[in-house]
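User: Quick one: structure for sequence A, then sequence B.

Assistant: Sequence A:
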Amino acid sequence: MRHHLINSISLFLLTMTIHTSALTAERLPTIPPAQYSDEQKRAAEDFLAARKVPVFGPFEPLMHSPQVMSQARAMGDYLRYQSALGTTLSELVILITAREWSQDYEWHVHYPIAIKAGIKPELAAAIADGRRPVGMTDDEEIVYEFSTELHKNKRVSERSYERAEKRFGKKGVVDLTGINAYYTLLAMQMNVAEYQIPKDGKKLPRFPE
């Protein structure tokens, strides 16, 4: 009787493990292009026309809602490539956001881009460790203070706002806020989807809750 009970419990636990794993694996899985609906096909075609590459990364889970994906892609076309901050500072904001959300894929993709754009490796390393970087330029400090306050406090102090507006103007403040918000959206989507980094990728350290 005892042996039968142990076997039953073991079978139950095994079944639950398999079921849980299956649920996790099925969280917003990447849709093969051959299985796209007509709406998804149009969204993928628009994506290819705008980005010159097929749907990838955070846009794969977003394809489950192709209109959201297309709207997100369009916003990213401006905030990623044409914002008033310029590429280097935009990449700094993206690293800050990826770190805030412990978003491994976002960091994995943008870390080398940020370094190539002019962000110092030691600055990026400090952000990855959760430390305030030292030796930042004035522009980097303005962006860092503004972004970290926005993420952690859900608002920005008068001092940080005034510094950002004086340096980048009102348009720059809107764009700076927008970059933080846009990459938060992508980070949220990937965290919910449990979107994986490549096998050779390195995950960000996790901080205590």
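Sequence B:
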Amino acid sequence: MPDHGHPLQFGAFVVPDAGNPARTVSLARTADTLGLDVLGVQDHPYQAGFFDTWTFLSTLAAQTERLILFPDVISVPLRQPAVLARSAATLDLLSAGRVEMGLGVGAFPKGIAAMGGPERTPGESIEALDEAITIMRALWTPGGGPVRLSGRYYSVDGAEPGPPPAHPIGIWIGSYKPRLLALTGRVADGWIPSSMYASPEEIREMAKIIDAAARDAGRDPAEIRRWYNVAGSFTSREGGFLQGPSKLWVSQLTELALTQGISAFILAPGQAPESDLRRFAEEVAPAVREAVAAARGTTVPARDDQSDLAPAERTTGHAIDLDESTRPRLPRHPAVRQTGPGQSGADALVYFHNNLRSELEQIAGVIEQVAAGHTNPAAARSLINRMSMRQNYWSLGAFCASYCRVVTLHHTIEDQRMFVDLRDADAELGPVLDRLGEEHEVIAAVLTRLDEALVKMITDPDELSVVRSEFDRLAEMLLSHLDYEEEELLGPIARLGIVV
């Protein structure tokens, strides 16, 4: 499937985690603030730990301004299609035309049955989805009189169309198997696979089934928009699909847009979700748009959706400062295991770094413990619980403040002793040492902001979201920095006999 020139969009795939409502809503709002285009939310009504997807999207419609609200995808066996059509049209009207519809046959039959839903074979599920789509589109089309459709699985008898949505709502199908892919080609406006279930190579083959079915139905395959839920990790080392620095993401997503016609990429963020979304929105999306526009011989459309944001929200100062593509690299010497003080120094550096990594994980755990206490309704009604929560805030602040001092002390020792010794021993190391020193300053600034947020959180629990944001930035930067330092300095420390 080649590029068909559809405008590129980028989005966030947010897990509707009911265990931490404040953070879940905050993550969705962050996606909107960052200027992303789509908010995808999975629908598993039988999952007790999840919000109801439709209620969640309806709430977010009032708290966001730009995002397309996209059930990714609705479990149709548990959603009566005529009612679903009314719900979608209503939300589209109330959100000024921001609803698109993802539909699926239901991935977990036992979960559907546990909720009182129908137990259908795969073939029956596909036939039922086809009927549901017909009913939904009929009820979105005004002027045709009462809708009467009698199907094997769904029927309506005289239902009046309406309310008409604010714009023509598109229907995407989440499909992987041949029969459902063929239905996608025959009737859907779009296709929404996920990289967690189908690799780029696999969706290339799946798309051939969609295209053939579209042509057999007298449709142009280019009419079917292809969106892709993706997951990956921002790391300093290049790995597989979306495993590496931002430039790798840009290259791989650009290729998918130009060779497979993917026009939207919806990111399921990882362990540092705010940081992942920020990098995706600020480093990856603009670069992919530019690369695709250059290949098409066009210009990137003007985007004014960030014009009202504060400068700190529109820029990526921390990401630019730690841009991996600009880091100096040293010539590689043969990997030889050294002995004596030098190797001991290299081992000591790794030991110190691993301690920092371990303690970073501990801070993440403490933050989540505080968050769980903060969102517990009983805590809001009990003075004792509130005092306990206050103590937790103090403990967290002390823990983080101590960690900040350790990181700062470690960097000071490096700057004033180890780096000096390395520079004296080998002038070729100068550019790398200069860069590492600059990154120490960037990380120090984030540590300061984290400390300030912790102080505010003691009296203002709402500051917890700021603490999370600054911690995510710290984790992103520090882990990348430690990896870079080890990649470039362990060999020279061992080879030159530097004592750490």
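The chain has two domains: 9-314, 317-496. The chain has a mean pLDDT of 84.

User: Thanks, that's what I needed.
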